[in-house]
Write a structure and sequence with these properties.
alpha+beta, Glycosyltransferase, 2 domains, eight-stranded antiparallel beta sheet, 12 helices, globular
Length: 551
């Protein structure tokens, strides 16, 4: 996920691709296999019908040491002529072709790649950077093609039959993993699909969790908010760990939590908000010279959020550790020491302005950031009281926690809107405050009034914009829409939460369970990067909120 792209057709219609397309007019039917990330596409033409099954293959023990994208082509009826086109690109220089004794190789920067096929696939064009081929299906017969890639490592050349067999092996492993999930309530099918999508974002080399698998897809068609999300945000990683723990997964959230602790601990006194998937500093933002998705430019690589202060991350991390311990797991001494150190930092830093959860250029006293600081100290006190972390400064955390809450009530309540405001001194609203309903922060019924104000001003049906004025800049934010469901559930209106979630799923159900960051309320089109981890984990938490608050 952290390599330069091999293909970029989403950003450039003439860009790189690895496509399998019928030569004549066709329709498709597409689905993921049940409880699996193996994708099946059925192509229907006037002359016949064929199925393409695609898998990013794994082995019995998990991730392969190389990347193996396998595509099985099967004839179902009649005949279908497929045109196969492989046109990789190199973001770091030219494509170098080499006829190695064991395979035809293309080198693209640090990547070593090869195209695998059998004699049934007829190569019609083969140049340094371009391969074209044809394959005609017959009923009951098929073939397999694959793209193999290694990143700064030797490249294995397996038998094609082994690659093909690993499609079904991978399918069984996805199903085995999904069967271990413990949820047994309403919307179970949607929950499993969310969990499978989140697992796909795990960078197994380190345990990091990518925010999304794509970069540069626009939050508004023709707009300039086209960011690179192939990094690990502390906030998103923490939310994902909690989501997978609640779903009953264990190895992935444990690996991710360990990565988070090691990375923050090694980063000096004050943690960053985002890291590379290898735990390093995110590269400076730069513009890639491509047209962009439907002309949306500039397309960016790297991310400038690395320079920001986001105080709510403290609450995200301490809340995750609290849930981790609450579910019976053990914090090691290094993690316990780190958590206490971060709680001390909150005492010293909570009065600062920051960029907020939405990473805005204007620093402010964002309400959600202050509540995140309150949450961090509240969970630190609980962890200390239960013996999970060293509580030498427990009384300081307790005292400062209450000071933060009083400050929020005094400075961040809008009398005009009768709601907690976006930041101190404004009447603007922020949908992230819907999350607070699960933090046990509320008093005087203010969260219920805040939810009502947010729904009135920021919602279009079940879809919710991030903050006041966002509708002019971008689509509705999927995670915020899920947080509204949560707010109804945690505030005791579970039937309304179920009804709203059903409406939301109808609006999100046009991409086979893979969620974008945002959605255009007018057209239903997905916007932003995908699969977006925050969208999936927010939907998973919304489903859990209904189960946990039922009755």
């Amino acid at each position: 996920m952290d390599s330069p792209p091999l293909f970029n057709r989403m950003h450039d219609r003439d860009g790189g691709r690895f496509s399998i397309t019928p030569a004549e007019h066709f329709k498709i039917e597409r689905r993921y296999r049940e409880n699996s990330n193996v994708l099946e596409t059925t192509f229907i033409t006037e002359k016949g019908c064929a199925r393409v099954t695609e898998s990013l293959n794994s082995g019995i023990s998990g991730r392969l040491p190389w990347c193996e994208l396998a595509r099985r082509i099967e004839g179902l009826s009649g005949s279908v002529e497929f045109q196969i086109r492989l046109n990789p690109i190199c973001a770091r220089g030219e494509v170098i072709r080499a006829d190695h004794p064991n395979a035809k190789i293309r080198y693209l920067g640090d990547l070593t790649t090869t195209f695998c096929h059998d004699d049934q696939v007829e190569i019609t064009l083969d140049t340094d950077d371009h391969t074209e081929a044809t394959y005609v299906t017959t009923e009951g017969q098929g073939t397999c093609i694959a793209l193999l890639a290694a990143d700064r490592a030797p490249l294995a050349i397996p038998r094609l039959s082994d690659i093909d067999a690993r499609i079904d092996l991978s399918d069984r492993e996805w199903k085995r993993w999904a069967a271990q999930l413990t949820y047994d309530g309403p919307f179970a099918t949607d929950l499993v699909r969310c969990a499978l999508s989140l697992k796909f974002l795990l960078f197994s080399e380190t345990g990091a969790i990518a925010a999304a698998a794509t970069a540069g897809l626009p939050e508004r068609i023709g707009g300039d908010k086209n960011y690179d999300y192939r990094f690990a945000w502390v906030r998103d990683a923490a939310y994902t760990i909690k989501a997978l723990l609640r779903a009953g997964a264990l190895s992935e959230p444990i690996a991710a939590f360990g990565w988070l602790v090691r990375t923050i601990e090694a980063d000096g006194l004050e943690p960053k908000v985002v890291y590379t998937l290898r735990g390093k500093e995110v590269p400076n933002e730069e513009v890639i010279q491509v047209p962009g998705y439907l002309g949306s430019s500039p397309v960016r690589r790297g991310n400038r959020a690395k320079q920001q202060l986001q105080l709510s991350c403290y609450g995200d991390f301490l809340e995750t550790a609290f849930l981790f311990a609450k579910m019976g797991h053990v914090l090691d001494p290094a993690a316990s020491k780190l958590l206490a150190r971060l709680a001390d930092q909150v005492v010293e830093r909570w009065r600062l302005k920051d960029s907020g959860i939405w990473e805005l250029e204007e620093e402010n006293h964002y309400t959600f950031s202050k509540i995140g600081c309150w949450l961090a100290l509240d969970r630190a006190v609980r962890l200390a009281d239960e013996g999970h972390i060293e509580g030498r400064r427990r009384d300081t955390w307790w005292t400062e926690r209450d000071i933060i809450r009083d400050w929020i009530d005094e400075n961040c309540w809008s009398a005009e809107k009768q709601a907690y405001s976006f930041y101190a001194g404004t009447d603007k609203l922020d949908a992230s405050l819907l999350l607070v309903t699960r933090f046990e922060f509320d008093r005087d019924d203010r969260m219920r009034m805040t939810r009502q104000a947010i729904e009135q001003e920021l919602a279009v049906g079940p879809l919710v914009y991030r903050y006041s004025g966002a509708a002019q800049e971008e689509g509705a934010f999927v995670a915020c829409s899920c947080w509204l469901v949560e707010a109804y559930a945690f505030l005791g209106e579970v039937d309304r939460a179920k009804e709203m979630l059903g409406e939301l799923l109808k609006r999100l159900g046009n991409n086979f369970g893979i969620l974008n960051e945002q959605i255009d309320p007018a057209t239903g089109a997905g916007l932003g990067n995908m699969p977006q981890g925050l969208s999936h984990l927010a939907l998973l938490h919304a489903i859990f909120s209904i189960q946990e608050n039922f009755g």
